[in-house]
Amino acid sequence: MALEHAILVSLLEQPGSGYELARRFDRSIGYFWTASHQQIYRVLGRMERDGWIEVREVRQDGRPDKKVYSVAAPGRSALSAWLAEPVEPESVRHSLAVKIRGAAFGDPAGLIAETERHRAVHAERLAHYLAGERRDFPDSALLDAGQELQHVVLRGGIAYERMTLAWLDDVLATLRRLGGADPDTH
């Protein structure tokens, strides 16, 4: 997937400025497709030159004018064409998993702190997803089609984080057993 497609989806959900778009990436889309603010602004410029998006200047009192981006007809066509293309299943590259396998040739207990750090990051991400679900989808019976699709992606993120936490708990128990450390429950 190109960053352009993620931007088109976000702008179709809600037009906005480059800053607003970058914040949306930080808050939601970025958990599934990451991009720096500089990358987003660079791609917005290219998309504008290619006619995929339109820009409207919004006057602001006491601040520079703001550019609000929305999707133009060629952008909708590009997104429609991309949606019709098959997507290959993603391969997982997991450095921690390689380290865990490599611990057989070193000190398994030496990876406990790193695994705990990963666990804390995933627990925080899960808490963030669950808070977003409570905030954005309090009543699933009232969702429109777009919201239902956003919610199903979020539920996938929640399921992934729960699975990752269960796996990390298994890894920690194994490392502690192999390293002779006392088991610690989470």
Automatic annotation (TrEMBL):
Residues 7-80 form the Transcription regulator PadR N-terminal domain. It comes from the Bacteria. InterPro entries: Tscrpt_reg_PadR_C, Tscrpt_reg_PadR_N, WH-like_DNA-bd_sf, WH_DNA-bd_sf. Residues 92-176 form the Transcription regulator PadR C-terminal domain. Pfam families: PadR, Vir_act_alpha_C. Gene3D superfamilies: 6.10.140.190, Winged helix-like DNA-binding domain superfamily/Winged helix DNA-binding domain (1.10.10.10). Coiled coil: none annotated. PANTHER family: TRANSCRIPTIONAL REGULATOR YQJI, TRANSCRIPTIONAL REGULATORY PROTEIN. This is PadR family transcriptional regulator.
